[in-house]
Model the fold of this input.
Amino acid sequence: MNENLALNVEERSLPESDLRWLASFANALSSVGYQPTIAALFPLYPWRQELPRLANIPRPALAACVDLFFRGKKVPIEELPAGIRPFLPKLADLGMLVISPSGVASAERFVLNWSHGVLLWHERPSATMTLYFGPESVALGLRIDPEVGSRVLDLCAGPGFQTLVAARKAREVVAVEINPAAAGLLTLNAALNQLTNIKVICADLVDVQLEGRFDMLIANPPLVPIPQDISYVLCGDGGPDGLWVTRKILGRLDDWLTETGRIHFVGYSYDTSAYGPLAQDLSSACSVDMDLLMVVTGTFDCAEGTPAFAQLVSSLVMHGKADRQTSSVEISNYIKAHDIKWLHCFHVSGQRSSAPRISVLDFGQTDYGGWFA
Ligand SMILES: C[S@@+](CC[C@H](N)C(=O)[O-])C[C@H]1O[C@@H](n2cnc3c(N)ncnc32)[C@H](O)[C@@H]1O
Done:
């Protein structure tokens, strides 16, 4: 299934004919009411929490589309609307679904989501997922505000949610993504949304050479704090403090930002006291002077025995290769060695400035927690 996606990435763009039929497919979905149905569920984790509601859709044609493209169910082709059926063989060719010899379609690996006016294929959450889309993807997408006609750089673009949101206003969005399958999926997502001002570059952001500078840089890097000796899925591995990739990005701002350039990124990292060293650490990692605003949306005590500690361990067990006890010991050792008390979810925005500073806005102790205060 993935080979076809990889093929498209080698080409980095789709033929005109593919661009046209993917746009027609999006229109066909719209005509049966797919997008507003999915929009009603977001930004929760609908594929986990809202499935019972989706089982009661009274229109059979719409229900069949939601079952196939969103819920990952097997659906006999004849139950799908006539306007959708012609697209199925092409979608199967691209690797987005499978059609059995008996005429049953299934798209178990991919979710076709709709949020903030964009259609987005991403991978259904699993232990080994690589084509990531999650709550902090949405959080970042909600916060980016490129000017009309500007040039935007999306680093760690994945399937491209923020790229697509930005491309509706920007003149051009350059999306850098290391995983060929994710870059391929982004190419499909751009076509699905009829956005032709996106350039997908499959490369490592550490040494990628890009033409020109950018008015805005956006990034949702791998950000889960993962102890050094534990392997973890690439889309989430942020190194021991969750900032491994973020530091590399901030260290290259001088290569990428215009004189008035702005940045937006999200993070998930430790701190020893409430919003002290972490904020200063981020500020000093910037290779140009920046005026930064850090909005902390969730703050969690992460000592051993707390829910935050348990959640980190579970994440390592699910998406890494370590067992529960090793994961627990590794995290505990790291936290103790660095005198860590807190784990923060945060968003940082900023602009180049001759007077560098970072201000912290603390929403972290609110009840809602996570990526939305
Ligand atoms: C947390 S996901 C974010 C995906 C997407 N931007 C979103 O928010 O939904 C991080 C992405 O960064 C990519 N990535 C990891 N290291 C990278 C690197 N060194 N250069 C470019 N992309 C990288 C991963 O493959 C993954 O797709």
Remarks:
- The chain has two domains: 2-110, 115-362.
- Residues 132-133, 137, 140, 156-158, 161-162, 176-179, 182, 204-206, 220-222, 234-235, 245 surround S-adenosylmethionine (CB under 6 Å).
- The radius of gyration is 21 Å.
